[in-house]
Each structure stands twice: as structure tokens, then as C-alpha cells.
Specification:
Layout (H helix, E strand, L loop, with lengths): L1 H22 L4 H21 L13 H42 L6 H14 L3 H20 L8 H28 L4 H13 L10 H15 L5 H12 L3 H14 L4 H13 L3 H14 L4 H13 L3 H14 L4 H13 L3 H14 L4 H10 L1
Helix pairs in contact: 1-2, 3-4, 4-5, 5-6, 5-7, 6-7, 7-8, 7-9, 8-9, 9-10, 10-11, 11-12, 12-13, 13-14, 13-15, 14-15, 15-16, 16-17
């Protein structure tokens, strides 16, 4: 019973630990336990006779001794080499997991995450490490760019911020290029490179060559994953950044052709048509989107706005009511439903809605003027 207990328990523990080691980035403790219980399993299999054992005398003759020593040397050197490589990859995985854990903790400085990623790259560089490092530096650049200047900022401070922005952006591009060099077949690496260049296309940046580099990177990603509907949508966004709406429409249609129920494509198309003043096409896209995502109150609200601006007040009422049905406290939907009632001549219902909103927002000048207009 004791032998059977050791055999069965070491079997289950070995299977569990090996599975956990492949599914998650293992710690040193987990790896030591995995190898320890695997050794115990092999030993118990030999002891119980389930695993056959062959005994070889390595000192039977001088020739056997020489061959055996040579083979043992090769095995030992190979084991040391594999152990060194495996150890580096394990330590790299440990630092990468630490970076991922830090990124999920609110308020963690980006520099701390960056330091862990740099350590992971130093031990065993991989494209996923470079992509993560690129995203961290790109986020740093975005934070610096979105920082609003104040009157207290000196010219030196402004210059330092510009220098920090350029350094973070340069590191993001270098890391993305390193990911592409490490694994050119990975389409995600090309997407990351294209995303950075695409952000440099619209005003006020307008970096020379950014549009061409972004388009090249996205096309390379599309070559490696031609059935992904997200990639034509990224190209459409790039064309919008470059103020080419017709080219953007073409890419959006390609995305819909790859995935007919792709909600993001219909949303982008509705926004594009609304900005271009094509109300009919915008409403058609928004209606298709509302059918694909029927439980999103924001989509029904956007559809109501489009119909309201097109003077389709009955359709706007239906859309706003659906938004409020999904989210009863949706203040903007209530307000525009009141405006819709007003346009329909249903002043009592409009006044009821505006009074309810004004009770919750007594400082709103818009609601006050709306009520006065009704009175």
C-alpha cells in the first residue's frame, strides 16, 4: 500500500505541476517541485516493476570505458547547455510575469514596469517582451503629450517635456522594430509598429514618413493574417488620420466582407458618414450596429441622435426609449427624449422629463432654458 500510495500521488502531482508550468510562468519553487516529483515518479515506477531497468557495466573493457566516458561527457555538457538556456528563459519569464502583475496594479509607475521588461529582455529576448516594452514607452509618450501646459511652465520645462516625449517615442519605435526583427512572422509585432506610426500621422504632429511607415507595417500584418477583420479597420483609421475618407470607406467594407457582424466596423462607418454629412448612410450603419449589439444603450442613443438631426422624430423617440429601457438613469437620453417630445408637440411629456432632470441638476442652464421655453 505504501508503494502504491507513492506511485499514484507522485503521478498526479507530476501531471499537475507540469501542466501548471506550461499554462503559467513558473516560479523557481514550482520548477524544483516539478522535477523532484517527476524523479520520485520514475523511481517509484522502477521500484514497482512498471518501468524496466537495464544494467550496463561501463568498466568491462578499456574500449567500453572510453566510449562510456565520452558519451557521459557529451550528455553532461548537453545537460549543462540546456540547463543554462532553460534557466535564462525561466528567469526571463519570471521578470515578464512580474511586469504583467505590476501593470495590473493601479497607480504603478510605468518606469517600474519598464525595468522588469528590460530585465526579461536581458536574460532571454522575445518578441512579446519587445511588444510590451514598446506599449509601455508609447503610453509614456501619450501621457506626456496629453499633459496640459500651465502658465507656470518655464521654456526650459517645456523643452524638457518635448525631449522626454521624443525619447519615449523613439524607444517605443525601437522596441517595436526589435519585435519585428526577432519574429517577422508575428503579425502582432507589425501591428504594434503600425499603431505607433499611425499616431504620428494626424495634426498637430504630422511627422514626415509616418503615414508610409504605418501603411507598410499594417500591410505586412495583413499578409501574415489576411482573414483578420481588425487589420483593414486599422488601415481605415490610418486613412482617416490622413484625411482620406474615401479610402477609409473602402477598408471598412473589406473588414465587413471578412466578418459581416463586426460591430466595430459598423460603428466606424456610422461615425465616418455622420462626420461627412451623409445622414442616410450613417443611420443605416447605426441601425445595423444596433441589431448586432442590441443591449448597448450608448449605440441606441447615437442612433437616436442621428435620427433626431435628420428630423425623424418618431424614430428618434424609439431609439431614446430603448436606451432608457436598457439604462434608466441615462441622463443624455432623457434630455434628448424631452427635446423629441417638444418637436412632436407633446409639451406636457417634455415638461415632465425636463422637471425630473432639473430636480437632479438644479445648476443646469440648458434645462432651465428648456423649461422656460415650454412655459
Amino acid at each position: 500500500r505504501a508503494s502504491r500510495f507513492v506511485l499514484v500521488s507522485s503521478l498526479f502531482l507530476s501531471v499537475f505541476l507540469w501542466a501548471a508550468s506550461f499554462l503559467y510562468a513558473p516560479s523557481m519553487t514550482m520548477l524544483m517541485l516539478t522535477f523532484a516529483f517527476s524523479g520520485l515518479l520514475v523511481a517509484s515506477l522502477c521500484e514497482s516493476g512498471l518501468l524496466s531497468v537495464r544494467h550496463i557495466n561501463l568498466v568491462e573493457s578499456s574500449q567500453t570505458r572510453f566510449v562510456s566516458l565520452f558519451l557521459m561527457g557529451v550528455v553532461v555538457l548537453g545537460a549543462l547547455g540546456l540547463g543554462w538556456i532553460g534557466g535564462e528563459k525561466t528567469v526571463s519569464a519570471y521578470y515578464f510575469k512580474k511586469a504583467v502583475d505590476l501593470s495590473n496594479v493601479a497607480g504603478t509607475p510605468l518606469v517600474d514596469i519598464e525595468n522588469q521588461l528590460i530585465k526579461a529582455i536581458q536574460f532571454a529576448p522575445a518578441d512579446i517582451h519587445y511588444v510590451a516594452l514598446s506599449r509601455v514607452n508609447f503610453s509614456k509618450a501619450q501621457m506626456i503629450a496629453q499633459k496640459e501646459p500651465t502658465t507656470d511652465d518655464s521654456p526650459q520645462t517645456t523643452q524638457e517635456n518635448q525631449q522626454m516625449f521624443q525619447e519615449a517615442l523613439s524607444r517605443a519605435i525601437q522596441a517595436a522594430r526589435a519585435a519585428v526583427s526577432t519574429n517577422p512572422a508575428g503579425y502582432e509585432n507589425w501591428v504594434q509598429l503600425g499603431t505607433i506610426y499611425s499616431a504620428l500621422v494626424p495634426k498637430p504632429l504630422l511627422v514626415e514618413g509616418a503615414y508610409e511607415n504605418a501603411k507598410f507595417a499594417y500591410n505586412e500584418a495583413l499578409k501574415r493574417n489576411p482573414t483578420n477583420p481588425e487589420l483593414p479597420l486599422l488601415l481605415a483609421q490610418l486613412e482617416l488620420n490622413n484625411e482620406k475618407p474615401d479610402a477609409a470607406r473602402s477598408y471598412i467594407r473589406n473588414s465587413v466582407a471578412l466578418k459581416e457582424d463586426y460591430a466595430d466596423a459598423y460603428l466606424m462607418l456610422a461615425q465616418l458618414e455622420a462626420q461627412s454629412g451623409n445622414a442616410k448612410e450613417a443611420i443605416a450603419s447605426a441601425e445595423a450596429l444596433a441589431k448586432l449589439v442590441p443591449n448597448n444603450p450608448g449605440i441606441h442613443f447615437e442612433l437616436g441622435l442621428l435620427k433626431y438631426s435628420s428630423e425623424d422624430y418618431d424614430g428618434a423617440e424609439t431609439a431614446f426609449r430603448k436606451a432608457l429601457e436598457l439604462s434608466p438613469q441615462y441622463g443624455n437620453a432623457k434630455y434628448y427624449l424631452g427635446l423629441t417630445y417638444q418637436k412632436q408637440g407633446r409639451k406636457v411629456e417634455a415638461r415632465t422629463i425636463f422637471e425630473e432632470l432639473f430636480a437632479a441638476n438644479p445648476d443646469s442652464a440648458e434645462l432651465k432654458s428648456a423649461l422656460e421655453a415650454l412655459k
